[in-house]
Amino acid sequence: MSQSVARALSILDRISSGTATLTALAEAEAVHKSTVLRLLQTLEAEGYVHHDGRHHYILGPQLFRLAQQALDSFEVRVVAAERLRRLCDETGQTVHLAVYADGIVTYVDKLEPRRVGVRMASRIGHSAPLHCTAVGKVLLAGLTPARRAEVVADLPLPPRTPSTLTTAEALIAEVTGVADRGWAQDHAENETFINCIGAPVFGADGSTLAAVSISVPDVLLEYEAVLHLVPTLLTATQDISRECGYSPKGSAR
Predict the structure, then answer these.
(1) Would you state the pLDDT for residue 212?
(2) Any domain includes 69
(3) Is there a single domain that holds both residue 165 and residue 204?
(4) pLDDT at 117 > cutoff 70
(5) pTM above 0.85, yes or no
(6) Checking phi first, is residue 30 left (phi over 0); if not, alpha (psi -120 to 50) or beta?
(7) CATH code for position 40
């Protein structure tokens, strides 16, 4: 691996996380400021970073262009886009689409209701906890039982709220139930004031391609009312799954 390329990528990651100055970046990388400055100058010349008058660095427009191209080329996102908008409009709530890879759940789309309301902190491209979100549980449920156990065994289970599941045994039991019934819930487990429901999107071979969730602040709907949205959510994910080539009768699932 090229050390310069690896360090440049590390610097971009640190900037995205809020490390903004040359001094702070050099300290975080444990190298001289001149080394970091050379990389920053190259990144800035190519449009990957930008600095203001106080020499605080932020991500540049080239990264956003690449990110948008990556999202646009993500097939599930493209196939699901129109149906997710309809789901958002039907429910009047925030809808997420998330995928799983290498132990990480990533939001690849987010649709908010057209009316101005409570905004979710989630963002496209950001990760979601596996153990305390509806999309995380759905994607865990899509793994084989053996693989699911391996992932959970290595998973940190920090308590995000008093309702968060913090033991491997409790999480495995919860996710097994999700696999059986076909949908998941986050009952104030990630944020105390938000309840979510989630369901899987299947591919042609029956594997879980993605998870769709509806997220609702409790100031808008009580928990029981959120559960009443499950049939609407399942109808949407079934529609998307069909568009992705899934057939319940023809699938090995």
Answers:
(1) 98
(2) no
(3) yes
(4) no
(5) no
(6) left
(7) 1.10.10.10
Q: Classify residue 62 by burial, with Cβ atoms within 10 Å: 0-12, 13-18, 19+.
A: middle
Contact indicator for 102, 72 with CB cutoff of 8 Å: no
Q: Identify the band that residue 250 occupies on the pLDDT scale cut at 50, 70 and 90.
A: low
Residue where one domain finishes, among candidates 11, 35, 63: 63
Task: Check whether residue 41 and residue 101 sit in a common domain.
Answer: no
103 has a pLDDT exceeding 90: no
Residue 252, pLDDT score = 46
Q: Are residues 81 and 116 in the same domain?
A: yes
Q: How many domains does the chain have?
A: 2
Question: In which residue are the tokens 């080539």 written?
Answer: 245
Rounded distance between C-alpha atoms, residue 68 and residue 63, angstroms? 9
Any domain includes 253: no
Average of pLDDT values for 71-75?
A: 62
